[in-house]
Amino acid sequence: MVETKRLTTILSKNEFLSPNTKLFRFDFQKGESYDFIPGQFVMIAIKDETGKEHKRAYSYASPAFEKGYTEYCIKIVPQGALSPRLSAMPIGAQVDLIGPYGKFVVSGLEHDLLFIAAGTGIAPFRAMIKQLLHDGFKKKIHLLYGFHSEEDYMFKDELESLAKSYPNLILRITASAPEKPGDWMHDTGRVTSIVPKYVKDKNLKAFICGPPAMVKDTVEELKKIGYNEKEIHLDVWG
After folding, report:
1. Between the CA atoms of 135, 141, 145 and 150, what dihedral angle is there, to the nearest 10 degrees?
2. Which residue among 15, 69, 114, 132 has the highest number of C-beta atoms inside a 10 angstrom radius?
3. How far is CA 217 from CA 149, 164, 192, 204, 236, in A?
4. pLDDT tens by residue, 105-157
5. Tens digit of pLDDT for each residue in 178-229?
C-alpha cells in the first residue's frame, strides 16, 4: 500500500476544460512527492475567509509517471464550499493535498479493459489510460465516454491523439444533447444507452465512473450482458 500524507503544493494551472469544469495542476515543492496508483483520489483542502477548512475528494487526472505535479478535473459548483474558492485562486497559491486513497485501480494486466465515464468521470480514466499505455499495456482498452454537448468533450484532442497512436485504445463517444446534431460524428444519447451497442463481451474487466444514477443504470445494462455486479469496479461521485 502507498503511504497517505498531507503535502502543501503550489497551484500552477487553473484553466477551463469546458464551460463549468476546470483542470487544476498542483506542483510539489522541492523534495516532496506522492506515490499513487492511477484511479485513486486525494482530499483537496482549503480554508475559507473565517479560517474553516473545507475538504473534497477528487480523482487524480494525471498518471503517476508524470513527475513533479498532479492534475485534477473539477466541476465548479457556484454554491459549493470548495470549488468556487479553488477556481478563484491565483497561480502560485498554496493548496494542501491529503492522500492518496481508494481502490478504484487496475490490478492484473491479463484482461481487456472497459472504462465507462460520464462528465468529470473521465478524470481517473485519463490517468489510468495514459499510465497503462506508457507502461506498454497491450490488451484492448475500450473507453465509453458520455457528456452533454460538444463543448463538454474534455481532453478531446489528447484522447483522439492517443487513440491514433495506440490501436488498442478504442474510443466510443456520445453526447446527450449535441448543439449541432448534423455535424456531430459520434453517438447521441446518454453513455448508458450505447453500452448494448458496443459491449458484447462479459469478460472485459469493467470500471464505471460518474454520478449515482448513471452508475446504477450502467451496472444494470452490464448485468443484462452477463456481468456479475460484484465484479464491476465502481467510482460514484456527486
Report:
1. 70
2. 114
3. 20, 30, 7, 18, 12
4. 998 888 999 999 999 999 999 999 999 999 999 999 999 999 999 999 999 99
5. 999 889 999 999 999 999 999 999 999 999 999 999 999 999 999 999 999 9
Pairing verdict, β 205-210 and 113-118: parallel
The answer to whether the beta carbons of residues 193 and 180 sit under 8 Å apart is no
- Which domains are present in the chain? 5-101 (2.40.30.10), 113-236 (3.40.50.80)
- Other Cβ atoms within 10 Å of 204 Cβ, number: 20
Residue 229 CA from chain centroid, whole number: 21
Three cell numbers at 17? 476544460
Residues listed for the chain: 238
Cα 127 to Cα 39: distance, rounded to the nearest angstrom: 7
